[in-house]
């Protein structure tokens, strides 16, 4: 055992001691740290309740209600359909999480955290979607014993086997709603001006390509997705300003050759949705489709990124397991898969918010 391991073992024995914990809370020099750690520990224990408070806030439209003017419990009761006591209980729970703030105990206004959420509407889409996820992880050990295919998330994301337009519309809409922040971060991290044609594989309704096209008017745009999704994307772009710049290719990216001619291919939140075998097939197909000297840009939440550990390995680790395929990967794991497929010069790009997305460019 190394010196660092022995020190960590000693430190952990000390922290686990009730006598030390009691001393740390009383000691003025350690009291602040002890309280901070205690709060973090309790948040970990109670986090499932906080998530349900947020879900109730989203479902009742509380943040929109208090956005322009404070509200009182009786008015919120009328708007939400909750009994007065239930409305007050939810308002105070939301205030405890800084979603709203209590004014003199009689009215409630928007809180700082609530304001931040209103600035990110994609969060609301994910909170609503989490109802399915919650049902899948109600018994986490049962879920972890096997990669199941009978989960709600597996059914929701069954796009590879689905030819149903309604199902395609449901998952494509969710992806599109949560894409704006991702697109902004990628556009800040990479200079698209060096390319002529960008092909977004697994591009859904085209939210990412729309952002790229709006930022770079000279780029040719190609969107590749399954036929039901491609049909929805085509309808969405039919009367838009990019209809003459955008070519939509209905293809199964894992079973059919990709269109050739692009000098940049983008995979935005696609790789982590698939197991290694499918990723190898996809990367090899992309390499064949790219022009000589072309590049591949991968953008998604990645494991092992400082400050984003919980998002990647806890949230996406369990989410993708419940989905029945895929995994959050570290940049070095992705680099290995890229090198295996024939890509070189793999570089990690600096993104403004790695909690949301990290990015790699490979040539």
Structure in words:
53% of the residues lie in helices and 12% in strands. With 363 residues, it is α/β, with parallel strands linked by helices. It folds into two domains: 3-118, Arc Repressor Mutant, subunit A (Orthogonal Bundle), CATH 1.10.10.10; 152-362, Rossmann fold (3-Layer(aba) Sandwich), CATH 3.40.50. It has a seven-stranded mixed sheet, sandwiched between helices. Helix 15 links the parallel strand 6 and strand 7 (295-300). Helix 2 packs across helix 3 (31-60), helix 5 (73-80) packs across helix 6 and helix 11 (165-177) packs across helix 14 (227-237). The model has no long low-confidence stretch (mean pLDDT 91).
Q: By CATH's scheme, which homologous superfamily of the largest domain applies?
A: Vaccinia Virus protein VP39
Largest sheet features: 7 strands, mixed
Counted up, domains total: 2
User: What is the gyration radius calculated from CA atoms?
Assistant: 24 Å
CATH classification class of the largest domain: Alpha Beta
Q: Could you give a short description of this structure?
A:
With 363 residues, the protein is an alpha/beta fold. It has helices at residues 3-16, 18-26, 31-60, 62-66, 73-80, 84-96, 112-118, 121-136, 140-144, 152-156, 165-177, 180-189, 207-215, 227-237, 276-289, 309-323, 331-340; strands at residues 100-103, 107-110, 197-201, 220-225, 246-250, 264-268, 295-300, 347-349, 358-362. The chain has 17 helices and 9 strands.
Write the layout of secondary structure elements.
Blueprint: H1 3-16, H2 18-26, H3 31-60, H4 62-66, H5 73-80, H6 84-96, E1 100-103, E2 107-110, H7 112-118, H8 121-136, H9 140-144, H10 152-156, H11 165-177, H12 180-189, E3 197-201, H13 207-215, E4 220-225, H14 227-237, E5 246-250, E6 264-268, H15 276-289, E7 295-300, H16 309-323, H17 331-340, E8 347-349, E9 358-362
Parallel strand pairs: 3-4, 3-6, 4-5, 6-7
Antiparallel strand pairs: 1-2, 7-9, 8-9
Helix pairs in contact: 2-3, 5-6, 11-14, 12-13
């Amino acid at each position: 055992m190394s010196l660092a391991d022995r020190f960590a073992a000693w430190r952990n024995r000390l922290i686990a001691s009730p006598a030390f914990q009691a001393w740390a809370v009383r000691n003025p020099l350690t009291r602040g740290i002890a309280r901070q750690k205690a709060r973090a520990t309790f948040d970990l224990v109670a986090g499932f309740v906080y998530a349900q408070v947020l879900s109730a806030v989203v479902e009742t439209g509380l943040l929109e209600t208090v956005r322009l003017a404070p509200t009182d419990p009786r008015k919120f009761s009328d708007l939400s359909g909750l009994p007065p006591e239930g409305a007050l209980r939810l308002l105070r729970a939301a205030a405890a999480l800084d979603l709203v703030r209590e004014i003199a105990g009689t009215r409630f206004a928007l809180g700082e955290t609530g304001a931040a959420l209103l600035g990110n509407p994609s969060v609301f889409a994910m909170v609503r979607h989490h109802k399915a996820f919650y049902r899948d992880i109600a018994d986490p050990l049962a879920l972890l014993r096997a990669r199941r295919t009978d989960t709600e998330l597996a059914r929701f994301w069954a796009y590879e086997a689905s030819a149903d337009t309604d199902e395609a519309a449901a998952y494509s809409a969710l992806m599109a709603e949560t894409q704006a922040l991702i697109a902004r971060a990628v556009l800040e991290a990479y200079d698209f001006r060096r390319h002529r044609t960008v092909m977004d594989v697994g591009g859904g309704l085209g939210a990412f390509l729309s952002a790229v096209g709006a930022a770079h008017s000279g780029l040719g745009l190609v969107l590749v997705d399954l036929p039901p999704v491609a049909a929805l994307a085509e309808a969405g772009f039919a009367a838009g300003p990019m209809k003459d710049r955008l070519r939509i290719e209905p293809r199964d990216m894992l079973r059919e050759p990709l269109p050739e001619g692009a000098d940049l291919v983008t995979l935005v939140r696609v790789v982590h949705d698939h197991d290694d075998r499918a990723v190898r097939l996809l990367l090899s197909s992309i390499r064949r489709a790219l022009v000589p000297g072309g590049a591949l840009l991968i953008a998604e939440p990645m494991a092992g990124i400082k400050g984003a550990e919980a998002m990647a390995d806890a949230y996406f680790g369990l989410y993708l397991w419940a989905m029945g395929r895929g995994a959050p990967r570290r940049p070095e794991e992705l680099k290995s898969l890229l090198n295996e497929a024939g890509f070189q010069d793999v570089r990690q790009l600096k993104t403004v918010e790695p909690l949301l997305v990290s990015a790699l460019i490979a040539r």
